[in-house]
Automatic annotation (TrEMBL):
<keyword id="KW-0830">Ubiquinone</keyword>
<feature type="transmembrane region" description="Helical">
    <location>
        <begin position="12"/>
        <end position="40"/>
    </location>
</feature>
<dbReference type="InterPro" id="IPR003917">
    <property type="entry name" value="NADH_UbQ_OxRdtase_chain2"/>
</dbReference>
<keyword id="KW-0813">Transport</keyword>
<keyword id="KW-0679">Respiratory chain</keyword>
<dbReference type="InterPro" id="IPR050175">
    <property type="entry name" value="Complex_I_Subunit_2"/>
</dbReference>
<feature type="transmembrane region" description="Helical">
    <location>
        <begin position="319"/>
        <end position="341"/>
    </location>
</feature>
<feature type="transmembrane region" description="Helical">
    <location>
        <begin position="222"/>
        <end position="242"/>
    </location>
</feature>
<dbReference type="GO" id="GO:0005743">
    <property type="term" value="C:mitochondrial inner membrane"/>
</dbReference>
<feature type="domain" description="NADH:quinone oxidoreductase/Mrp antiporter transmembrane">
    <location>
        <begin position="77"/>
        <end position="274"/>
    </location>
</feature>
<keyword id="KW-1133">Transmembrane helix</keyword>
<keyword id="KW-0496">Mitochondrion</keyword>
<comment type="function">
    <text>Core subunit of the mitochondrial membrane respiratory chain NADH dehydrogenase (Complex I) which catalyzes electron transfer from NADH through the respiratory chain, using ubiquinone as an electron acceptor. Essential for the catalytic activity and assembly of complex I.</text>
</comment>
<dbReference type="GO" id="GO:0006120">
    <property type="term" value="P:mitochondrial electron transport, NADH to ubiquinone"/>
</dbReference>
<dbReference type="InterPro" id="IPR001750">
    <property type="entry name" value="ND/Mrp_TM"/>
</dbReference>
<keyword id="KW-0472">Membrane</keyword>
<feature type="transmembrane region" description="Helical">
    <location>
        <begin position="52"/>
        <end position="72"/>
    </location>
</feature>
């Protein structure tokens, strides 16, 4: 009952942010999302309690700064206050350089709250940021976006814990989303929704197999070829590898940058994407190519031949309808890639 109430109030908070025209009401909706999420964390170990407390302290500090900026009257320092508001929202979004708390909090939470904090929980702050954006703070947003994309890509290179890898992946993708907000907000929302679907699928797959570490990524359930192919497609799609759905996300963003004559910025973001692709490939390698006496390729082939379709389905994760549908996202790349390439060629010619 309490969980259902918390979920309902969280959704109500997001609706308040989207539908309100007053900044204070938007702030109330943002805080409603924050506090209802804390009730959903339900910590059962000291590590999870620590993560919940860290999240509460960081979000509360950002909320204080945001509220003081909102209630200040319009004066000569209004441009400074607008920058302060953007920095407070960047803390809530875990955008670099205000991201140091995010990987530790994500690693300390259970899988489902970690999935929420990587996806749904950022929608409110993103919506409010898009409503508060002006020409005065647009340059600052671009700087924060580029910093976030590069910091997330570089910081994830030496990580071996899967939730931290997904956290740094979120920081990097948040940079792309924030940058797209400055040039085309519908494209930014589309980018974030596709990213959220793929991330949620990946996180729940890892939860089902209890893959807390890269060394555990060669899982028993990969005796099911369907699960193996889907997991690899999702991970590589996050890296923007063609012809998967995540590549179309990056292609759409690149098209908008070129249309707005932001070639240098596009090159920086693409370099950050290539850097982050390295740790996605590490996850893929640990998932499909590592082997041991128990998980050798010949052992897998022999067991798969003996499996019936019923047994194969029983070894697949019990995804919800949303998560099952999101597996289609990478496959959409195979369908729409020719059209996207044709449009890009026509645009650059």
């Amino acid at each position: 009952m309490m969980t259902t109430l918390s979920v309902g109030m969280n959704i109500l908070g997001l609706l308040m942010i989207i539908l309100s025209n007053h900044y204070i009401l938007m702030f109330v909706g943002l805080e409603l999302m924050t506090f209802t999420f804390i009730t959903l964390v339900s910590p059962t170990s000291p590590r999870q309690v620590e993560a919940a407390v860290k999240y509460f302290i960081v979000q509360s500090a950002a909320s204080i700064v945001l509220l003081l900026s909102l209630i200040f009257p319009n004066t000569l320092i209004s441009s400074t206050l607008q920058m302060t508001m953007m920095m407070a929202l960047s803390v809530k979004l875990a955008a670099a350089p205000f991201h140091s708390w995010f990987p530790e909090v994500t690693q300390g939470m259970k899988w489902k709250p970690a999935t929420i904090i990587l996806t749904w929980q950022k929608l409110g702050a993103l919506t409010m940021m898009s409503r508060l954006m002006t020409q005065d703070n647009k340059t600052m947003m671009i700087v924060l976006a580029l910093t976030s994309a590069m910091a997330g890509a570089v910081s994830g290179l030496n990580q071996v814990q899967t939730r931290k890898i997904m956290a740094y992946s979120s920081i990097s993708h948040m940079g792309w989303t924030m940058f797209l907000l400055t040039i085309n907000q519908p494209v930014a929302i589309t980018y974030f929704i596709i990213y959220s679907l793929i991330t949620a699928s990946t996180m729940l797959t890892m939860e089902y197999h209890n893959s807390n570490h890269l060394s555990k990524m060669h899982m028993d359930s990969f005796l099911s070829p369907w699960t193996l192919v889907m997991t690899l497609s999702l991970i590589l799609s996050l890296g923007g590898l063609p012809p998967l759905g995540g590549f179309l996300n990056k292609l759409l963003a690149f098209k908008e940058m070129v249309n707005n004559n932001m070639t240098v910025t596009a090159v920086v973001l693409i370099l950050s994407s290539l850097t982050s692709l390295f740790f996605y490939l590490r996850v893929s390698y640990s998932t499909a190519l590592t082997s041991s006496s128990q998980h050798s390729i010949s052992f897998m082939v022999m067991r798969v031949k003996k499996k019936t379709m019923k047994n194969t389905m029983n070894n697949n994760p019990p995804f919800t309808l949303l998560i099952t549908s999101s597996h289609i996202v990478p496959a959409l790349g195979l369908i729409f890639l020719p059209t996207a390439l044709t449009s890009l060629m026509a645009m650059t010619s």
